[in-house]
Amino acid sequence: MHPITLSHVHTGPDLLACFEVMRSLRPHLESAAAFAAQVARQTEQGYRLLAAWREGRVAGLAGYRLQENLIYGRFLYVDDLVAMEGSRSQGLGARLVDAVREEARRHDCAFLVLDTGLGNALAQRFYFRQGLLAMGLHFRQALRAG
Predict the structure, then answer these.
(1) Of 21, 38, 58, 97, which sits most exposed with the smallest number of CB within 10 A?
(2) Architecture (CATH level 2) of domain 4-129
């Protein structure tokens, strides 16, 4: 098995190299350019994108941000966590979770928080194995069509 290296992605070719991996998690993303523009906007709000590289290709991603609220205090929220199909069950997801957990600790966060779909049993099982516990339901309401 080839070694995995983790590095933060900011702009340019590395960001574009992340598009197909992110699209496997977020299929509504229409183009690499739109993805790059979205990441740029989110970066202004504190979003960071951590890529797991194997043989010069992106094999997984963790998008996250540091936040603070009255529920958790200071915490790290994971927006996106994805490993390519061929990289699953090889410890890649655990490496990404470990890296963002360590980032949270470096920033003195009280919690690591993420959401997953109710029907995503495989992800839920993975998160339980990583020590994350389900604490509630996430509710939303669409405010515009589409």
Answers:
(1) 38
(2) 3-Layer(aba) Sandwich (3.40)
How many Å apart are CA 63 and CA 79, to the nearest integer?
Answer: 5
Model pLDDT for residues 52-72, shown as the tens digit of each residue? 999 999 999 999 999 999 999
Tell me how far apart the alpha carbons of residues 30 and 36 are, in angstroms, rounded to a whole number.
Answer: 11
What pTM was estimated for this model as a whole? 0.90
DSSP class of 85: G
Q: What share of the chain is helix, strand, coil (3-state, %, to 5)?
A: 35, 30, 35
Backbone angles phi, psi at 135, to 5 degrees: -120, -5
Give 83-119 pLDDT, tens digit per residue: 987 666 678 999 999 999 999 999 999 999 999 988 8
Which amino acid is residue 98, in one-letter code? D
Question: Residue 49 carries which side chain, given as an amino acid letter?
Answer: L
Residue ranges of the domains in the chain?
4-129
Nearest to 93, CA basis, from 78, 111, 108: 78
